[in-house]
Amino acid sequence: SRFINLACAQMGPIARDDDRSTVVRRQIELLREAKSRGAEFVVFPELAFTTFFPRWVLDDPAEIDSFFEPEMPGPETRPLFEAASDLGIGFYIGYAELAQEDGRTRRFNTAIIVDARGRIVGKYRKVHLPGHAGPVEGRTSQHLEKRYFEPGNLGFPVWRTMGGVVGMCICNDRRWPETYRVMALQGAELVCVGYNTPDDHTGVFDFDQLTGFHHQLSLQAGAYQNATWIAAAAKAGCEEGSNMIGLSMIVAPSGQIVAMASTTGDELISAKCDFDMGTLYKRTIFDFARHREPSQYGLIVER
Ligand code: CDT
Fold first, then answer.
1. Which of 8, 145, 169, 171 is an active site residue?
2. Binding-site residues, ligand 1, Cβ < 6 A
3. Predicted ipTM?
4. What does the pLDDT read at residue 138?
5. Which CDD domains match (predicted)?
6. Ligand 1 mean position, distance from CA 172 (Å)
């Protein structure tokens, strides 16, 4: 067995005018609780340092930039890195990344893995950007990730860290089977995911009433079909008038939920997870080399 004591640090709402330092103090409090429970690795939400700004139509470039991080860690986020390394805890966290790349300014919805010594070991940029590039008429709430971010350009890598093979995705990515499969084909044993999921995100009540179910369904199917652990952390609660689901959870390669949040506020959940549970599934029902038939899957990359 190869055990890791894993935690998800669900965060309650962040107000539009909350500063980074206030938010980081909350995150450090969650890290301390994680330490008291013996956790070695903590998963924080998507865009974890600010409110979920893609709900608004913003035009002022300075205001838009105020939600982005030109460096990670920066002056206000460094205390999180220091606290985690003092506690000997690794973490995953999401943030809005302002990058200078290919001779221009680029914006991505990004997540990183930081090891227990405070070093960034991996970066992922969200591939599946939901919503629209401009406001949709008649909708009471907007989801404008396509306005503020480019699709990620780093693929779905995995990293050997924390005693296992670890990959990342962000929020909407968790609904797409390709996300998990690309990482599973590289041997992923743990997939980390942070999310902000409003309970009115499709605008169709028949679908929206199933928001929690579809979240669980995606994670449980993703874990089972790819023989991997999944640790998913929400930003939850009523944030600037938008109700976002909680249900942060840790899912085993069996598809079973082994820990789940019961509130929509700051809440730590944790579980002792055996990376070798995934190995067992990979040697039996999901032995990819023996059972998959890639020659029959061509359409998936052609369309
Ligand atoms: N942040 C994010 O990706 N949220 C989406 C909901 C919005 S879709 C318009 C999700 O898939 O949870």
1. 171
2. 46, 130-131, 143, 171-172, 175, 195-197, 201
3. 0.98
4. 86
5. DCase
6. 5
